[in-house]
Amino acid sequence: MKKTLGLVLMTVVLVASLGFAPVASASSVGADGKAEVGGRGTLTAQGDGIAIIGGNGSVNIAGNGILWVRDLAGDADINVTGHGKKKEFSDGWIQYSGFGGSADVEGTRIIVVLAGVGIDLSAQGRGRAILWGHGSYQINGQSNEWSQGFTRSINLASTGVK
Question: What is the pTM of this model?
Answer without folding.
Answer: 0.76
